[in-house]
Specification:
Length: about 70
């Protein structure tokens, strides 16, 4: 559930961690694709900001990482 996922992340997160969310149902199929992730983010982001965390993109986090061109 979104409630459990939020609780789990908040109780295990440490500075420098990267949170990755995957949203799928049994067998990788879900008619409500993205809804659980959206609910987790709606709960998680305000709680993280209250703790002093701020979301960043991977390119902000790793500015020196080589870029892959098409």
């Amino acid at each position: 559930s979104a409630r459990f996922a939020t609780w789990f992340i908040l109780h295990n997160l440490r500075p420098g961690d990267i949170v990755v969310l995957h949203d799928s149902g049994r067998g990788g199929h879900n008619a409500h694709w993205g809804e659980r992730t959206a609910e987790v983010l709606n709960r998680l982001l305000p709680a993280l900001q209250q703790r002093g965390y701020r979301p960043v993109t991977l390119s902000e986090l790793l500015p020196e990482a080589p870029r892959v061109e098409d």
